Amino acid sequence: MTDTADTNDGQQAEQSPRERMRERRRAAFAKAERVLSRPGFQRTIRERLAALQEAAPEVYDLDRHADIYGDGIVADLEERVAALLGTEAAAFFPTGTMAQQVALRCWAGRTGNRAVALHALAHPEVHERHAFSQVSGLRPVRVTSEPRLPTAAEIRDFDEPFGALMLELPLRDAGFVLPTWEELTEVVEAARECDAVVHFDGARLWECTVHFGRPLEEIAGLADSVYVSFYKSLDGFGGAALAGPQTLVDEAKTWRHRYGGMVFQQFPTALSALAGLERELPRLPDYVRHARVVAAALREGFAAAGVPSVRVHPGEPHTHDFQVWLPYEPDVLMEAAVRQAEETGTFLFANPWDRGAPGLSFTEVAVRSQGLQWTADDVRAAVADFVERLPTG
Hints:
The protein has about 400 residues and is an alpha/beta fold. The protein is built from 16 helices and 13 strands. It has a 7-stranded mixed sheet, sandwiched between helices. Strands 9-10-13-12 form a 4-stranded antiparallel sheet, covered by helices on one side. Strands 1-11 form a two-stranded parallel sheet. The chain is globular and about 60 Å long. The termini are far apart. The model has no long low-confidence stretch (mean pLDDT about 95).
């Protein structure tokens, strides 16, 4: 009979250093008493179901029949999203990848031009395995690769025609950055001058109101169509919505069926989305404002600790997510972060660290309900403790 301890030791030996660190990070996060954000997807199934069970009666009549192929609660969710964004209609999709492909495919058919102008760091270019071209026959063309949204001048001076301009708001891989309201309106006007439609990749559009100083319907009203996510900021189980003119949404629902998005029942996901709209959406402005407090305290803490070349980006976060850059290798920073969590119960940097350049790494910091409990002094103290775990010399 094989000894269980020997088997476990063998499994540990077979794991790569990256896998072992991933397991340590997960365990540390689960046990951590203090974090800046604890998104739902990092919780157990039991915890997620319990949270939904608590919220569900507040947001929907649970005695109604469950949905079948998009009716019932799914249709009600679509109406709610359209009302929030000020559009004629909205369509629920199982994923944002599908929603945006369908939207831009529909626009390509209407404009007669399959070229989609976008940023080099836009989600479809970086994270979707060339789905636009491989699946939907679209032709992405990169307007700019600068770590900001395209400018009106870049749109007007672009050297080939395009049928649609896609703007990711905020641009995550550049640091969750947004343009000013004036810059955004100028870019939209420039695209219209080029006879192009404008589509917002608004996976995180919900938290843009503080930066722009405008309500959701005014922001969404700039575009011809908008995609929003239900899990990135609203803590839903998944899912997305495409919002826009009724005729576009009707066509999109046809393509949704063709793409395999006509799911038999989706009430758990739709119910979690409604809970997110009810509970998380009103809190997002507070998260954004407190993220600015946290960002400033992080910068001050590293300065006081004498760590050189620290960058918090943007200096004043545009949303409740931002980047921190430090002059160390990713594995060094991850080890320090996990050890701090294991030894103190405080997980200051819970997300992975990525290499930005030799000897320079960055991580994403998110501030949500748990982060509201941190004062600036708490953040500075956690930074000092974190720096003590970094190598010197």
